[in-house]
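Every protein is a chain of amino acids, and every chain bends into a shape of its own. The fold becomes a row of whole numbers, each drawn from a learned catalogue of backbone shapes. The protein below has been through that process, and both of its lines are reproduced in full.
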Amino acid sequence: MRWLIGIYFKKTKRMKETIKKILRKLKILTGQISPIRKEIEINYEWYGNKYGGFYVHPNLLNSKSIIYSFGIGEDISFDRAIIEKHKCQVYGFDPTPKSIKWINNQQLPQNFTFLNYGIDSKSGFVNFNLPKNKNHISGSIVKHQNVDDNNIVSVPMKCFKDILNELGHKRIDILKMDIEGSEFEVIDSVLSASIEITQILIELHERFFVDGKTKTTKLLKILKDNGYKVFAVSDSFEEVSFIKN
């Protein structure tokens, strides 16, 4: 009986995944999602679980590599995976109260450093919009359809230049951003910091905004103008990986 139940759930899971892929393709065909395509062919691997992972070009990473991971939530599977494989140094950032509480209850990897502030275009305390769904973790400094602008907390944010000055890094091997729509706001300040960043991994939250496609188009152009090319895209077209050409 158990094996029949197991087969049923496996088939149900595969069916749900198939339906999701079909719906995504329909959204692309109808212009609801930006169809982001690879611009360069290089080796890449998925690091982390399905929910919190990203594609990475692993060939350039080693124990001296520096990783900035913005947006932790309650998932450091990406950070654990990259530390396990390359023994590199990962700095995780998140100002979300639930995330900080979760992190404080975890046994963290030796090479993982957590900082309880987020990234913004300027430094200071800001109003942070908490999610409408109380079961969700991720809030945002940007107002969008998934956050409640009547339920806010004040959190510390720092601009990229100030973060670099505080940590003393002269180059970064990977910068990962899963920051709930703020990626569109901070990308200019990140790229103007005059520091070498080899790979930039971004979860795009185009779906949060009425003008999301316009925001994505602008972000892609900014990265391209700064010498970055897309080397990997997830099935959802949300996790996009760039490398400096």
Observations:
- The CA atoms of residues 211 and 217 lie 10 Å apart.
- Residues 2-29 form the longest helix (28 residues).
